[in-house]
Design brief:
Number of domains: 2
Order of helices and strands: HHHHH
Number of strands: 0
Largest sheet: none
Structural class: mainly alpha
Number of helices: 5
Helix content: over 70%
Shape: elongated
Length: 151
């Protein structure tokens, strides 16, 4: 008998249903589903819900369901535009400020050498990390199966 807590296993059930778990987690969930009737029942309910929602056609939705869906799409688009504007503004301010600060430090002969070299290196490192994380997030968002999941 495998020891587990049902409330800790429940979040893994949706990952199992979507085929997103590692082989080890998948095998562990299969053992739990064989042994625990509560987890097996929860899994079956999730499976049925996914089948019902996945099979729902737009034409068969009520007017209020269509309106809610439209509002969600519009809200998501507005949020994306807002995020792009905020990100662009931050990049512009950060980039411009960093360039002016570095230029002023290099020209300032009274500033210690470690400050004149260290601070530009830190700013450049932060900028590179930011761009790297941003590109990784953009790439990951294209294949994220859970981006439309709402609590």
């Amino acid at each position: 008998m495998i020891k587990h807590q049902c409330r800790e296993t429940e979040p893994l059930l949706s990952g199992y249903l979507d085929g997103e778990l590692t082989q080890g987690d998948r095998q562990r969930i299969e053992l739990i589903l064989d042994e625990c009737s509560i987890c097996a029942k929860n899994f079956e309910e999730m499976k049925q819900l996914c089948q019902q929602v996945g099979g729902m056609e737009y034409k068969k939705m009520t007017a209020s369901e269509k309106d809610r869906l439209s509002e969600e799409v519009t809200g998501a688009a507005s949020a994306s535009v807002g995020q792009i504007l905020l990100l662009g503004g931050v990049l512009l301010l950060y980039g411009t400020g960093a360039v002016y600060l570095v230029m002023a430090l290099i020209r300032d002969s009274e500033a210690p050498l470690f400050v004149r070299l260290g601070l530009p290196a830190v700013l450049l490192g932060v900028g590179i990390l930011f761009v790297t994380v941003l590109t990784q997030r953009i790439k990951a968002s294209k294949t994220d199966r859970y981006k439309n999941v709402r609590l």
